[in-house]
């Protein structure tokens, strides 16, 4: 069976409906390792190209898609290990730390390393950062050391994945931020539940205390008892609206003002009771004198 070849003129050409989305392990084990050790590849789908000879937007293939290349690393200095990643318009700069790629077979064996680089326009160290990203895959040193005897310096292969990082517009970011804030508030409300405050509880307590005022226990004091039941409500309404006591003095706010208001109301009730009781005694005395004559 002939080996499948999807690279034409250095550009990847897949049939309609096919996509190339390999994992990091597959790129290292199935492609890069086979390339280095001259083993047959699963498919001719990754072209050979020196990515540092061109700017990222000039590389072969569709710039809107991820592009994969086999490339060689060129030493920056004759006796050094640093790679020369300068291009015509800028340079690739490493960011972060290298990520270890571990096999999925459960042995936790490292099969390769991945380095993340960002493209900068201009000359270092004053270049301007762009949205071009490159993932550079290489084998672990233990594997490459075994091949050094048959591998020349120009065949120091790495596998590169290059893509343009897409950023959302400002309006999209604002919408996402507002949506997250709304979800956070909704979740907090769902956990704690709505809180209701009874602003009439204070007034109800005052009314209840006033309704417990002592009344006369005599059998002929029904009129006095009726006044004691209704008088506090009227007096309370007048004081709550004007906030002045019966003597025309301004009532203090807070708990101290409430105590003074209650004392004033009770004093007025007792005064009315005393006057009615005195009137009752006068009527009884007059009735006795008239009956005696």
From TrEMBL:
<dbReference type="InterPro" id="IPR003441">
    <property type="entry name" value="NAC-dom"/>
</dbReference>
<keyword id="KW-0805">Transcription regulation</keyword>
<keyword id="KW-0238">DNA-binding</keyword>
<keyword id="KW-0539">Nucleus</keyword>
<dbReference type="Pfam" id="PF02365">
    <property type="entry name" value="NAM"/>
</dbReference>
<protein>
    <recommendedName>
        <fullName>NAC domain-containing protein</fullName>
    </recommendedName>
</protein>
<dbReference type="InterPro" id="IPR036093">
    <property type="entry name" value="NAC_dom_sf"/>
</dbReference>
<dbReference type="GO" id="GO:0003677">
    <property type="term" value="F:DNA binding"/>
</dbReference>
<dbReference type="GO" id="GO:0006355">
    <property type="term" value="P:regulation of DNA-templated transcription"/>
</dbReference>
<feature type="domain" description="NAC">
    <location>
        <begin position="14"/>
        <end position="165"/>
    </location>
</feature>
<keyword id="KW-0804">Transcription</keyword>
<feature type="region of interest" description="Disordered">
    <location>
        <begin position="216"/>
        <end position="237"/>
    </location>
</feature>
């Amino acid at each position: 069976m002939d080996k499948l070849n999807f690279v034409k003129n250095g550009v990847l050409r897949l049939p309609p409906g096919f996509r190339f989305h390999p994992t990091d392990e597959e790129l290292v084990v199935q492609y890069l390792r086979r390339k280095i050790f001259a083993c047959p590849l699963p498919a001719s789908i990754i072209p050979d190209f020196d990515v540092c000879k061109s700017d990222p937007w000039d590389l072969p293939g569709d710039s809107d898609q991820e592009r994969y290349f086999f490339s060689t690393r060129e030493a920056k200095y004759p006796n050094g290990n640093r790679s020369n990643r300068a291009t015509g318009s800028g340079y690739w700069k490493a960011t972060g730390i290298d990520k270890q790629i571990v096999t999925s077979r459960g042995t936790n064996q490292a099969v390769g390393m991945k380095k993340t680089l960002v493209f900068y326009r201009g000359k270092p160290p004053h270049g301007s950062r762009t949205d071009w990203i490159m993932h550079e895959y290489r084998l672990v040193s233990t594997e490459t050391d075994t091949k050094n005897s048959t591998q020349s310096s120009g065949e120091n292969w790495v596998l590169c994945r290059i893509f343009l990082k897409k950023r959302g517009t400002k309006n999209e970011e604002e919408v996402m931020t507002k949506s997250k804030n709304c979800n956070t508030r909704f979740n907090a409300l769902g956990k704690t539940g709505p809180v209701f405050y009874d602003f009439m509880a204070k007034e109800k307590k005052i009314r209840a205390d006033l309704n417990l005022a002592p009344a006369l226990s005599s059998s002929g004091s029904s009129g006095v008892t009726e006044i004691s039941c209704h008088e506090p409500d009227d007096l309370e309404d007048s004081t709550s609206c004007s906030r002045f006591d019966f003597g025309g003095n301004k009532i203090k706010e807070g708990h101290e003002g409430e105590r003074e208001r209650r004392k004033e109301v009770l004093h007025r009730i007792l005064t009315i009771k005393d006057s009615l009781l005195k009137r009752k005694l006068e009527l009884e005395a007059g009735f006795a004198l008239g009956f005696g004559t």
